[in-house]
Design brief:
The chain is of the alpha/beta class. It is about 45% helix and about 15% strand.
Length: about 260
C-alpha cells in the first residue's frame, strides 16, 4: 500500500504535492503513476494529516483534496484504491468514484461512519489509536499494550459484523505510533502474531515513523533502512499489507521474502 498524502502538513511528505499552497493535479498524477510503476498494489489517499499534534480539517477540505484524486486513479490506473478517512461523507463519495477500501485511523467510531462503511460494501481497515492525533503522544499509558490494542480491535470487529460487514472485508492495524511510546511499539512488533491469530488480514505502517528515529537517531529522510527492517519483521510475523512511502525498496523485500518462503 503506497501512501499519497494530499495534505500540507503530514509528517514526512506534507506539502510535496502542492505548488503555491495549492494541491497540484499534475504532481499528484505523476507521483501515483510512479508508485504504481514501482510496484504498489494499493494507493492510499489521505486528505487529513494524522501526525502527532495534527489538527482536524473540515469535511469540505477533505472532500476537495481526496475525491478528485480517487476519481483520477479509478480512471487511469489498474490498482486498488484506499481512502484514509474517518468522515462518512468522504467514504460515501469515494465509494461512488471507485474506491475499494476505507482505511480509518478511528476504526469507524465517528458518528455515522460504521453505518456508512457498511452501506458502501467496501473493505474496511480498523486501526487502534489511543486518544486523538492532536494529543495522542502526550502521555500514552497501558497496563498491557498488546491486550488492550487487541481487545479494542476485537470490539470494533464485533461492531462491524453487527452492522453487516462481512468478516472477509475486515482488516486490522495495531496503529504503530498512534498513542504509543517506543516501548509500546516494540512490544507490539514482537507480539504481532497475537493480532494475526485473530484471523483477519493485518496491515502495518512503520514507514519513516518516529519510532525508527528513536531507535536509530536518524531524521525522517534517513529512515528507509529502518522502515524496511520493520516491514520484513512484520511479514515474518504474519502481516499481509505494508503501508509505505518507499514502494520500490519495499517491493524488493516483499518479492525476496515471497521467493524464499514460497
Amino acid at each position: 500500500m503506497a501512501i499519497v498524502n494530499t495534505t500540507p502538513d503530514s509528517f514526512s511528505d506534507g506539502g510535496e504535492l502542492f505548488i503555491n499552497n495549492q494541491l497540484n493535479a499534475d504532481l499528484v498524477g505523476k507521483r501515483i503513476e510512479q508508485l504504481v510503476a514501482d510496484g504498489a498494489e494499493i494507493i492510499d489517499i489521505g486528505g487529513e494529516s494524522t501526525r502527532p499534534g495534527a489538527q482536524m480539517v473540515t469535511e469540505q477540505q477533505e472532500l476537495d483534496r481526496v475525491i478528485p484524486i480517487v476519481d483520477w486513479v479509478a480512471q487511469n490506473c489498474d490498482v486498488a484504491i484506499s481512502v484514509d478517512t474517518s468522515s462518512p461523507i468522504v467514504m460515501r463519495e469515494a465509494a461512488s468514484k471507485g474506491a475499494h477500501l476505507i482505511n480509518d485511523v478511528r476504526a469507524l467510531t465517528r458518528e455515522g461512519a460504521l453505518t456508512t462503511a457498511a452501506q458502501t460494501g467496501l473493505l474496511v481497515c480498523l486501526m487502534h489509536m489511543q486518544g486523538m492525533p492532536s494529543t495522542m503522544q502526550a502521555s500514552p499509558e497501558y497496563q498491557n499494550v498488546v491486550t488492550e490494542v487487541n481487545d479494542f480491535l476485537q470490539q470494533r470487529v464485533v461492531a462491524c459484523l453487527e452492522a453487516g460487514i462481512a468478516p472477509s472485508k475486515i482488516w486490522l492495524d495495531p496503529g504503530f505510533g498512534f498513542g504509543k511510546t517506543l516501548d509500546h511499539n516494540i512490544t507490539l512488533v514482537k507480539q504481532l502474531p497475537e493480532l494475526v491469530s485473530l484471523g483477519f488480514s493485518v496491515l502495518v505502517g512503520f514507514s519513516r515513523k518516529s519510532m525508527i528515529g528513536q531507535i536509530l537517531g536518524h531524521p525522517v529522510e534517513e529512515r528507509l533502512i529502518g522502515s524496511l527492517a520493520l516491514g520484513l519483521m512484520a511479514l515474518e510475523r504474519g502481516a499481509k499489507i505494508l503501508r509505505v512511502h518507499d514502494v520500490r525498496a519495499t517491493r524488493d523485500i516483499i518479492d525476496t521474502y515471497i521467493a524464499i518462503n514460497s
